Amino acid sequence: MFKISYVPVDNAEGAIADAYSQFPEAFGIPAPLQLMSASPGMFKCQMALIDYFSREAGFDFAIPAAIRYMAACHFKADACVEFNAKLLAAAGLGDDELETLSSDPDNGPFEERENRLIAFVKKVVEGRDVSEEEVETLRSLGWTDANIYDACSQGTFMAGAGLMMNAFSK
Fold this sequence. Notes:
Largest sheet: none
Helix content: 55-70%
CATH architecture of the largest domain: Up-down Bundle
Number of strands: 0
Number of domains: 2
Strand content: under 5%
Structural class: mainly alpha
Shape: globular
C-alpha cells in the first residue's frame, strides 16, 4: 500500500492496535493514519489530535468531518474525501449536500453559524486573505477564537495528509 514501512491493520499490536480499534469497522482505518504509523511519535501526536477534536474542541460530530471533507476535495486528497464522506453519510448527508460542502459551503446543510465557519475555512484552505470583519462575524455567531483556529487547523491538515499520501502511496 505504501513505499515506506507502516503498520497494517492486521499486524497492529499494542498502542497502534488500540488506536485502530477506536474506529468503527464500517468506516475502516483512514489510510493517512495507517501511513502515519510509520512514525510512532507522529502517530501518537495524531491520535492526541483526534482525541482533542472528538472530546474538547466544542464542535458537533459532523462539523470537523465536513471541514475535512471540503478541504480534502480542494487538495484532491482522495483517501480523506472517501473517509469523511462515509462519516458524513452516517450523519445523514447525501451526495447533493456533499457537493454543496465542497463548492458552496455558505449554503451548506448545517445551521448558518456552522455554514459560515466552514465557508471561512474554505477561504483559508484556498490561501485567500481573511478580514478582521470576517473573524468578527464568526465571533458574533458564537465562535471563539479557539474554535476558529481549530476549524482552520482541521482544514489545513488535509493538505499535509494529501501530500504524504501522494508521495508514499504505491
